[in-house]
TrEMBL record:
Pfam families: SRP54, SRP54_N, SRP_SPB. One of its GO terms (biological process) is SRP-dependent cotranslational protein targeting to membrane. Composed of three domains: the N-terminal N domain, which is responsible for interactions with the ribosome, the central G domain, which binds GTP, and the C-terminal M domain, which binds the RNA and the signal sequence of the RNC. The lineage of its organism: Bacteria, Bacillati, Mycoplasmatota, Mollicutes, Candidatus Hepatoplasmataceae. Belongs to the GTP-binding SRP family. SRP54 subfamily. It is an enzyme of class 3 (hydrolase). The keyword Cytoplasm applies. This is Signal recognition particle protein. Its EC number is 3.6.5.4. Residues 98-243 form the AAA+ ATPase domain. GTP binds at residues 106-113, 191-195, 249-252. Transmembrane segments: none annotated. Residues 99-297 form the SRP54-type proteins GTP-binding domain. It catalyses: GTP + H2O = GDP + phosphate + H(+).
Length: 453
């Protein structure tokens, strides 16, 4: 996952801060040297890093003037606040208009075409801000660019416009605008060709497209793997087109993510979204406070909660919770829960949203991969059971039923026994949790996470 490089190193520094309790000026200087090195190794621009460290230093040193020492929590709060500040303070509010025209620009290979479909899907189907979108293919230079956008448009069932035999981009743009006017499209997203900022001819082409459509938003699409040079690239695009925001792609990868800091702080450009996977739904609103929280190992419970809420309505979730608390949770419910968990993303991605303290936040990648494998095996086994067996797991103790399920699923007796054993263990934990909650006491959260795995 993106930010892994930075997050793991920052967490070590944070643990070091927390272990000291009270900090002197010397402690603070030592810590900030480490933070500076981490940011530079993560490809954050030097000027951005210097400003960030300087700001923390002034506030932190100010805290130790009177008492000669300050608490580690004070320093952590300062680092968190400065991270939020450097990342843009607040999430960008979408510039909603009765008709919005979004012009997507950037270098070739940044993931622009896929992002066009992701953004359209997010604004229309998820946020429900528009009803009649149009995706326009203006990349006549990259082979298969038009085919790619058409395939994506069909996948989300959105109107698509292209002229395959026309080589004049300006003429295509004008014709697309006429069609948009005729059909009253309220969201038009333009997929322009990737280009270098030094290619004056293609940059002039973008200026002409801008004059024709008068976009409400011009979004720069940046590759999460970009190094510090992306700052100069975005600066040129901004000078010529006046960008409204940035979308950073491939943030589900091992990208260091330093470009986000540089673009947000040095250019004062809002990061509007992050591309976090290959699926069309994998586009997340960028929240500076949530990213800062993740980087410091504090987790991101808000995003985790939102992901869970997207999976179903409150009534069905409440019904499931009541079943669990009453001890009626069965294998059918377990299957639904596992399917919903899969929709939220892989366990590795989910674990990144958990605080790094406690058992859940310290699960190793090896353990996570093992969990993923077990989940897949359990799904296959449960799907090979009858409805009656899922509702009454005690029936699964019968040898003939076991043999039939193993034959149908292709799994081993050990895996079958493991599922039943872990499910029984999970049921007991749920009942214990229910009793604690009903008594009005707080449950011991350190014991969570041991159920199915």
């Amino acid at each position: 996952m993106a930010f892994n490089f930075m997050q793991k190193r920052l967490e070590k520094v944070i643990h070091k801060v927390q272990s000291k309790g009270l900090l002197s000026k010397e402690n603070i200087s030592e810590i900030l040297k480490e933070v500076k090195l981490i940011l530079l190794e993560s490809d954050v621009n030097l000027k951005v890093v210097d400003d960030f460290i300087s700001s923390i230093e002034k506030k932190a040193i100010g805290k130790v003037v009177d008492t000669d020492r300050t608490s580690s929590q004070e320093i952590l709060k300062i680092i968190y606040d400065e991270l939020v500040n450097i990342l843009g303070k607040e999430a960008k509010t979408w510039n909603y208009q009765s008709r919005s025209v979004v012009m997507m620009v950037g270098l070739q290979g940044s993931g622009k075409t896929t992002t066009v479909a992701k953004l359209a899907n997010n604004l229309v189907k998820k946020q429900k801000k528009y009803k009649n979108p149009l995706l326009v293919a203006l990349d006549i230079y990259r082979p298969a660019a038009i085919d790619q956008l058409e395939t994506l448009a069909k996948k989300i069932d959105f109107p698509f416009y292209a002229e395959r035999n026309e080589k004049d981009v300006i003429k295509i743009a004008k014709n697309a605008l006429k069609l948009a006017d005729k059909n009253n499209h309220d969201l038009i997203i333009l997929d322009t060709a990737g280009r270098l900022q030094t290619d004056q001819k293609l940059m002039d082409e973008l200026k002409e497209i801008k004059k024709i459509f008068i976009p409400t938003d011009i979004i720069f699409v940046a590759d999460g793997f970009s190094g510090q040079e992306i700052l100069n690239v975005a600066q040129e695009f901004n000078n010529k087109l006046k960008l409204s925001s940035v979308i950073v792609t491939k943030m589900d990868s091992n990208a260091k993510g330093g470009a986000i800091f540089s673009l947000a702080y040095a250019l004062k450009l809002s990061i509007s979204y992050l591309g976090v996977g290959e699926k069309i739904a994998n586009l997340e609103i960028f929240y500076p406070n949530r990213i800062a929280s993740r980087l410091l190992g504090l987790g991101d419970i808000e995003t985790l909660t939102e992901k869970a809420q997207e999976l179903g309505d409150e009534k069905s979730q409440e019904k499931m919770f009541r079943k669990m608390m009453s001890g009626k949770f069965d294998l059918d419910d377990l299957l639904v829960s596992m399917q919903q968990m899969s929709k939220m993303g892989n366990l590795g991605a989910i674990s990144k949203l958990l605080p790094s303290f406690g058992k859940l936040g310290k699960i190793s990648e090896e353990k996570i991969n093992s969990m993923e494998t077990k989940l897949d095996i359990y799904k296959v086994l449960i799907n090979s059971m009858t409805k009656k067996e899922r509702k009454n797991p005690r029936l699964l103790k019968h040898q003939k039923r076991k043999e039939r399920i193993l034959k149908g699923s292709g799994r081993s007796a050990q895996e079958y026994n493991d599922l039943l054993r872990q499910f029984e263990k999970m049921q007991k934990q749920i009942m214990q949790l229910s009793k604690v909650l009903k008594s009005g006491r707080m449950p011991d959260l350190s014991k969570l996470g041991n159920g199915l795995f």
